[in-house]
Design goal:
The longest helix is centred in the N-terminal third of the chain and has 22 residues. Helices cover 32% and strands 24% of the residues. α7 packs across α9 and α8 crosses α9. The N terminus is likely disordered. It contains nine helices and 13 strands. The relative contact order is 0.22. By secondary structure, it is an alpha+beta fold. A nine-stranded mixed beta sheet has the order 1-13-12-2-6-7-3-4-5. Strands 8-9-10-11 form a four-stranded antiparallel beta sheet.
Length: 334
């Protein structure tokens, strides 16, 4: 979906990337600000998507981007923008984040989130929260209101509640279609690729050139209680450093942890001078070599955006002062 005259700027941004393809955009002029989002990567095929569901995802991605853009166009911080964008997706049952998160094997929900400020590389994360309505807010509270980087489990819930964040019963996150997925996985004793994926994230650059990144997930369907993936681990799914890049990842978390995907990408940009798209491809090639798949969204110090993914599709979008675009599939003809 195209809004305003942005096709020339963003056409390449929505191309898929794999081990041999780079999805980088070279922007002629530094943008005033820019936000890039994802709503998860995986086996997302046109033949499995109804027109109504496709339209619903596109509209949801636009709502997320508009929330972040509202912060940035008024001169707000990249950190506030990525939080705002992720909050919208946490509240939308289409995504595996807050409301609508997948079920654990024992029929509950455990959510993870992280946020990172590129100005000073301050970061906050929560893992395995069960009662926080919006995990990204809990992650930010950890960053700003504690001396720590991560809280987990009951301690994370207790910390969030002590900070006055909105708490809910675990059943708040229930949806019928996620329960059906759980029952299928438990009965068949096997997960599809779609069952292993589902994460939302955002990266942004603001008017002052500051970078930030945020990521939230419900994990994988029928995951073991207490399992933690890559999302709350700084350097695995999330990283932001001013002057270098900002990254948010989605995919099979065990492999992203082992590669340290987000930090690997930013280090390749910082130490080798690689463009973000190239660095993203290299990191995902390592993930693929180990047997994993997924994708990343990226912004560099000049505001150039990139997407890289080695799965059939990734819900994604980009917005700046010129307009916005969203895409879903890996054939780049959205």
């Amino acid at each position: 979906m195209l809004q305003n005259a942005v096709l020339a700027v963003f056409a390449l941004a929505l191309l898929p990337a794999c081990a041999t393809t780079t999805a980088e955009v070279r922007v002629a002029a530094k943008p005033e600000w820019r936000l890039v989002i994802h709503g998860g990567a995986g086996v997302i095929l046109r033949e499995n998507m109804t027109p109504e569901r496709e339209a619903a995802f596109e509209a949801a991605l636009q709502r997320s981007m508009q929330a972040g853009a509202a912060v940035l166009r008024e001169g707000g911080a990249a950190l506030d923008a990525v939080e705002a964008a992720v909050l919208v997706m946490e509240d939308d049952p289409l995504f595996n984040a807050g409301y609508g998160a997948v079920f654990t094997a024992d029929g509950g929900h455990e959510l993870d989130a992280t946020i990172m400020d590129g100005r000073d590389r301050n970061a906050g994360a929560v893992a395995g929260v069960t009662r926080v309505k919006n995990p990204i807010r809990a992650a930010r509270a950890v960053m700003e209101k504690s001396e720590h980087v991560m809280f987990a489990g009951a301690g994370a819930d207790a910390f969030a509640e002590a900070q006055g964040l909105e708490m809910v019963d675990n059943s708040y996150f229930d949806t019928d279609w996620r329960r059906e997925a759980l029952e299928r996985v438990l009965q068949e004793r096997a997960r599809t690729a779609a069952d292993r994926h589902g994460t939302v994230g955002a990266v942004a650059i603001d008017l002052n050139g500051n970078l930030a990144a945020a990521t939230t997930t419900g994990g994988m369907t029928a995951k073991a209680t207490g399992r933690v993936g890559d999302t709350p681990l700084i350097g695995a799914a999330t990283y932001a450093e001013n002057g270098v890049c900002a990254v948010s990842a989605t995919g099979h978390g065990e492999y992203f942890i082992r590669v340290g995907v987000a930090k690997t990408i930013c280090d390749r940009v910082k130490l080798l001078g690689e463009p973000i798209g190239v660095a993203g491809d290299v990191a995902l090639a390592e993930v693929a070599a180990l047997g994993g798949d997924g994708g990343v969204i990226l912004i560099d110090a000049e505001g150039n955006p990139a997407f890289a993914f080695n799965s059939p599709g990734m819900y994604r979008g980009v917005i700046d002062a010129a307009g916005s675009m969203v895409a879903i599939y890996g054939d780049s003809t959205d």
